[in-house]
Design a protein that fits this description.
about 100 residues; 4-stranded antiparallel beta sheet; about 10% helix
């Protein structure tokens, strides 16, 4: 059985201060899909693909503007070499926003 939870944000919330009122009323929903890692095809990359390090819980964009590393150093994206990866691939979750 699925239950819907409503979250009440305090008036001084960052979300309420940064979003215009008409944007807060929009009901746009996005799905987050967990992608499988296929070592033959490599790790998926794209503007809508993110890497979640399960060690330190950092989220890194797979296609950043500058080099990126998670807090613990497990997940790395090197744009100069056009590559990315994880020291421990079992501690990497690949997410896609649809």
């Amino acid at each position: 059985m699925e239950t819907n939870k409503r979250i009440n944000l305090p008036e001084r919330s960052i979300i309420r201060r940064t979003l215009p009122i008409n944007e807060m009323k929009m009901n746009k929903s996005k799905n987050i899909v967990v992608l499988d890692y296929n070592h033959r095809e490599g790790i998926p990359v794209g503007r809508d693909v993110f890497y979640l390090c399960l060690n330190c819980k950092s989220i890194i964009q797979s296609y950043p503007d500058t080099n990126a590393t998670c807090k613990c150093g497990n997940v790395v994206v090197d744009i100069d070499a056009s590559r990315g990866g994880a020291n421990d691939i079992s501690k990497l979750l690949i997410l896609k926003i649809e």
